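Exercise: predict the fold of this chain.
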Amino acid sequence: MVEQQAEVAVDAQNKDVVEQVERILRSEEFRNSEVLRRLLKFLADKLGSGDGDDIREYSVAIGGEGAPSASDPHHNSTIRIQVGRLRRKLADYYRSEGQNDPIIVDVPKGAYKLHYAYREETSSSPISDIPAFSASFGGTLDRPASPSRPSTKPSLFAVLACAVLLLIMAGAAWLWQSRSRTAATLAGFSPELQELWQPFLDSKRPLIMAIQDPLFAEIRSGDGIYIRDRGMNEWKDALDSPSIVAAQKAAKGSDMQPNHTFITFEQARTSLLITKLLGQHVENLSIARASEVTLQQMADNNVLFIGIPREFFASEIQPMPIHPQLVPEKAGIRNLSPRAGEPQLFANDFSWFPNDQGTVYALISHLPGPLGDNDTESFVCRRPAGFVAAVKDFTDPVAAKGIVDALKKASGGRMPRYFQVVLKVQFKADVPITTELVLVRSLSS
C-alpha cells in the first residue's frame, strides 16, 4: 500500500512537470525559437524517461540539435552555446510570462540535466531568487509547507525590509534620471545617433573594433613577395589559386605562408570615424585584426566588424542566437524572407580596373553575441566604398535620423534592439558618391 501511494505521488510530479514544459513551449518567449524548443523538449523527455543523469554533449547534438551522427561536439562549442541560450531564455520566461507559474524549470550551469522546483505559493520572486532545490522524475520532492496560521501583524523585520526597499527604489530612480540626463548631453551625439549606439554606450563590456585584415600569400623570395587574390579568404584558397601557384613557380618554388600584415586606407578611415564618435564615451575600446578575433572573444566582449563579409562573419555568424534575414553574398545581399515588392537579391553592379565604379549594397547587422547577452555590429560590403558609406551614415546625425525613423516604423514605433539595414551605394574609385537607404529589418530573439 505504501509503495502504491509513492507511485501515485511520482506520477503526479511527472504530470505537473510535463504540463509546465508544455506551457513553456507554447509561450511567446519560445514561440520563434525552434532550436531551443526542440532542445528543451529533448531534455525534458530524457528526464521523464529516467535518463537525465546520463546526458552527454554527443546525445544532445544528435537528439536535441539534429546533428548528423558523425558530428564531434567536443570540437564544436555550438552545443554548449545553445544550452547557455536555453538557460537564459528560461530565465527571461520566468521574469515575464512565467512569473506566477507553479514550477521552475532550469538547466544548471555545467550540466545538461533538466531540473525543476516547486515555487513557494506565497512568493512572486524571479527565478534567480528561488531557493536552490530541485528534483528529477522518479525522485521525491515535497512542496514547501505553508504556515497553518499566518500572522496578520507586520513584523519588525517586514517593516525594516519595506524601508530598505523604498530606499533602493529611490536610489534606482535617482540613478536612472542621472543617467538619462548624462545621455542627453553626450558630446557629439544627436538623439538618433544615441539611439543607434545606445547598447554600446550603456554596456560595461569592453568593445573590440575588428578591422578586416585581408589574407595575402607571402612567398619567401628576397625581401618577400606578397600576392592578394580577391577570391582568397582561407589559406586553402591560396593553395588552389592559379595566379598564386604561378607566382610561386616563378619564384622557383620558394616557401609560401599566409600573411595578414596589411590593412586598407578604407579600414583606417572607418575606424577613425567610429573612434571619434565613441572614444570618449565607451570604456575599454580597442582595435583588433578581424582574423585574430575568436568566438570566445565575441561571447565575452561587444564587437564591431568592418570589412568584406565573407572574410569574417560568414563563418562566425552561424552559432549566433538570432538568424539574420539578410545575408551578404558575393553577388550582393540575399533577402531570405522577401516581402511584397522586395527582391530576393540586392545585386551589385560594378566594374573593376580600369573603370572601378558602379553600385554596391552595404549591410549593417546589429545582433547579439553567441551567448545572447552582448552586442555585435557589422558593416560589410563587397567593395570598400560600401562599408565606408555605411559607417559614415551611422556616424552622421542627418543620415542617422532617417535610419532610426525607418527602424522605428518597422518596429511599431520603438527602436528595436536588434536590426539589419541595407544601403545602396554608388561609387567611383572606391569613393562613395551617393548613398540610399533601401531596406530595414527589425529582428527578435
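Check your answer against the key: The chain has a mean pLDDT of 76.
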